[in-house]
């Protein structure tokens, strides 16, 4: 894997299996991570504890533009955006 030192990377869907694995790989490659997930930030952080390079964790529904814009304003410049978020039929996700 290439070197991602000093790269600001946003991962949407970071609490899920694919997002979590991507976060772990990029953390090992030196990336600074900003994790987004529809789940509570503590839950997202808990499933991503292997990633020592977490800069921020946000609860975000990426289908809602206002939520994404608010977080983008907080994070600032981003080098890489990874979308591992998905939608499934679930009553309590909104």
TrEMBL record:
InterPro entries: NAD(P)-bd_dom_sf, SDR_DHRS6-like, SDR_fam. It comes from the Bacteria. SUPFAM superfamilies: NAD(P)-binding Rossmann-fold domains. The keyword Cytoplasm does not apply. GO terms for molecular function: oxidoreductase activity. Keywords: Oxidoreductase. Belongs to the short-chain dehydrogenases/reductases (SDR) family. This is Short-chain dehydrogenase.
